[in-house]
Each structure stands twice: as structure tokens, then as C-alpha cells.
Amino acid sequence: MSETWTISNDRYFDPEPSRRGVARQLYKSVRGAAIVSPHGHVNPGLLADPEATLGTPTDLFIIPDHYVFRMLYSRGIPLESLGIPGRKGVPVEEDHRKIWQLFAENFYLFRGTPTGLWLSDELTKVFGVEEKLTGESGQRIYDHLQSRLMEQKFSPRALFAQFNIEVLCTTDGAADPLKHHRRLNEEGWKHRIRPTIRPDAVMAVADAGWLEAIEDLAEASGTDIVNYRSFVQALEARRSFFRDMGAVATDHSALTPYTQRLTDTEVEAIFARALSGDANEEDAARFNAHMLVELARMSVEDGLVMQLHVGSLRGHNMQVAERFGPDKGADIPLSTEWTRSLRPLLNEYGNDARFRLILFTLDESTYARELAPLAGHYPALLLGAPWWFYDSPGGMRRYLDQTTETAGIYNLAGFNDDTRAFVSIPARHDMWRRVTCDWLAGMVVSGILDDEDAAEMASDLSYRLAREAYGLDEETSIRSS
Description:
single chain; 481 residues; TIM Barrel; 2 domains
């Protein structure tokens, strides 16, 4: 066995001694803070079932994680050999030990990447792995992990407590019956595991599966959807249901942030074409632009925070999409224009104290040019954390540098991990806390901040801003009054 595998206690801190010393002190003050995870994609069934397990090491670390298999695929490793589920007729490897060995032999590919940093943190800190993952050590580490995963203290519920997660929000389709959330609420987990309504499928009027999604929405809402007006009523009913189940937010993914208020006649005509199966891509773009404004209107009325994730061209690799379906690591960022696109929505609701809109982008060039000036003006607008490809030490620093000179930190929405990988949650939050503490330390040693302000800002960035952005502090006040 090689020497014990350790990760540096000073990771992500600047090597300059005085700055590093300040960063250590700031991090010490926030490292134990509870985790608020207001946006993510963890399966609530993991926590609803007391007997649930995390499966095999391959189930946990490889098959569900597009960050992992995306890198491996980029180096010529077929998705079939990694056990990634394919469409009917696509044969995939089922031997989890064999898949793990292939992963171990190629673990070096993740050196210096955020994925590698998260995985190293998880393996060493959560599961106590003491030797570096390589082809030679792969099977020993598999045995170690398999043994740990069979222990009760490594069950999802036990890890939830160990990770000190205060709030975890999931992302759920508009027609989801939320049976897992219902069970958790009945067991006393209410306000800890919260659903988030994501109605993307029922807004995509030109997609092949739209009519089926509308049928599901009609059944879930108890509404006969025969026109646009009844569609809106069904969606409002589902939002009300989600809110009753503890939701504090909605989530929307869009190719662009283009918004436009259509006339009643225009939107009814598009919806009628969609019901007949005749909607085209132009209809889809205009309908989505209109619905973003309508969803803002709904948020003003029901108080749900509106999240908007923009700028991913999904399924770029058509061969992968045809064989394996969506969300298989082939999503690529696009350049985005925000200022003109959001103007119709913001001129209707951006000044309304009842509205809160959190924006996420995959176009870093818009941070300083558009997003920070927008958030630094409109009271309703907050900037979401660096997302997806930029959820990294470098991405976080660039985000902080480019947004805060114009918007300050108090127009930011704190951090969310946006992950499907449950066990990676503490590693992702720890990265954010370490990077923000180092960034603040740089301003302390430069004389921009004093120690007191930096300490308060570290706490805000680590914990309080997320609670405030998603109205969790408001809910606590309401419940206790």
C-alpha cells in the first residue's frame, strides 16, 4: 500500500502567508455552519425510505454522475462500458466491479478538476479511504466502500444528519405527486426536505412528449386542459399544492432569457396549435418567452421564488442523445444576452417587493457587463451561485470578482450545490466556503475590509444569504409567530 492519501487542510487558500492566515481564521468561523441546499436534484426517495441504501460504489460515484462519465467519455471510454443506462436495445456493462476498475484506472483524468477535488474529499473524509485511487488499488477500495455502504451509519438518513444539512430542496416535475415528500412530512421532516416545482416539460409545446406531459398535468391538477386559460389554471393549482407541501421556489431552464408578453389571442392560438400537434420552434420560443412573464406574475401572487437557469444547449451530441437519452454529459454553454431579453419581465415585476427572481448563467462574460448591473438596480433580482461548469475554485473567484464591485455580496443568493450526487453536498459547500474565505482574506490584507466585516461576510456567504434569498428566514418568522 502506498502512503496514506490525504488532502491539504489549506486547499483553495492563497499561498501568501498573511493572506492564508486570515483565510484560515475566517474558514474556522464558518466550516461548521449548517448546510442550506436550496436547489438541487437529489432523489427524495433516498431519504423517504428508512431502508434505502446508496447501492454499490459504482451506483454511488459513477452511473448517476454526468461530471464523471462526461470526462471518461471525452477520453474515448464508451458510456456502455460505464453502465450508463441506454435506450432499448443498447447493451451496457452490468458488472459493477469491472466498471469501478475502469474508473480507477482513469481516475488520474480528474487531477486538478473540481470533480476530482469533490471525489477526493468524499472518498477520504466521508468514507475513510486511505490510499489513492488507482488501477492497482481499485479493487481494495471497492471492497472498503462496499463494506462501509452496508453499515447503518452510511445510510442516506444517517449521512443527512452527519452532513449537518438544515434544508435540502429537490427539483420535481409539475405533475409529480410528491409521494416521497408526503411521507417525509408525515414523519416529521417537514421544512427540511422541500420540493421545487419545475414545469419545463409542460411549457415545451413543440417537444414530442408535450401532449403526454399535458395529460399528466391535467390528471394531477384535476383540470380539463382544453385551452391556454385552463392550462394556466392547472399550473396555478400545482403551484399551490407544491407550496402546501413546503416548496419555497420554482425552477425553470431556458435556452435564452428572452421574455415577451403576448396578447390573449396570440397565446391562445399557439396553445391551440400545440394541442393539435402543429406547434413549431417559433411557437415554442414565443410561448416560453410569454410564460416566463406569466410565471413571474404567479410568483408575485403566491410568493414562490423564481429561479431561471439559462444558456445550456442540451444534447449537443446527437449520437449520444439517440442511444442514451438526455442528461448524458453532452450539454454545452451558449453565449447569452440578458439586458434586452429580460426587460419586458423586469419592467412588469422587477420593482415589485413581492417578487424574487434568481438568475443563473453559463456565460461568464455577462457577469460584469449585464447581470451585476441588473442585480445592482432591480430590487427583485438576485444572482445565483456560479453554476455547473463554473462550480469550481477558479469559477467562484471570477464570479466574486466580476459581480461584487457593482452589486455587492448582498445582491447574491449565496450558494447552492445543484447536485444529484447526495454524498458530494458537503464537499461542494466546503469548496465554496474555503474559496470565499480566501477571497475575503485578500481584501483584508489589502486594507479593503477589516476583520469584523470580513467575518460577517464569510458567515453571510456561507449560510445566511441562501436562507434569505429563498425566504426561509421569513418562513421561520411566520411559523414561530
